[in-house]
């Protein structure tokens, strides 16, 4: 079976990271390696990462010169030695058989990349409606904005909290994540790797933190997600989108 390298970009993730690392240690099969790429954390993230590195030989730590998710993930991919890359957010946890599911999915040569269904949860609630909308968006966004890709190429629009995975050789072939993009870098990447094969969204669930929805509220959060996704779909500049996103926040 293919070896899997986990790549986790971090920035001030001391609250979420301990649970994520605990869940990673339960994976069966185990990852070939876990590469944490830190963008200059000022909280306890680095000490947690150093502790994990000392206790778990699979863990590698990479320092990024900037806090920029695309650059951090590219750095992790450069250091990776596994045949498969799996990009995991620090506030997202996987089912214990996730790597076996990834390996089976990529055993199909017609599949270039894939991801999971993200279920947003918090300490006291599960965001069912937001999670459903994010799931539906992976289908209706490419159907609306890239219908040829959707019907002929099997395109899906996945985001980081859905845990994107692909073969390392194909990641490098299509150029990885665009380091110039401050937002929507996953969507841009998937459109490029879609030239090499279909994008699969698996009928399996990963759990992600609801911290943004908790901060913004249900209506505001979903309006932001919809607004940014729509503007990107019609070709609005990612640089302007990022400024808009920050202003809304």
From TrEMBL:
InterPro entries: Glyco_trans_2-like, Nucleotide-diphossugar_trans, Trfase_2_rSAM/seldom_assoc. The keyword Membrane applies. The keyword Plastid does not apply. One of its GO terms (cellular component) is plasma membrane. Coiled coil: none annotated. Keywords: Cell membrane, Glycosyltransferase, Membrane, Transferase. Residues 5-162 form the Glycosyltransferase 2-like domain. One of its GO terms (molecular function) is glycosyltransferase activity. NCBIfam families: glyco_like_mftF. This is Transferase 2, rSAM/selenodomain-associated. It comes from Catalinimonas alkaloidigena.
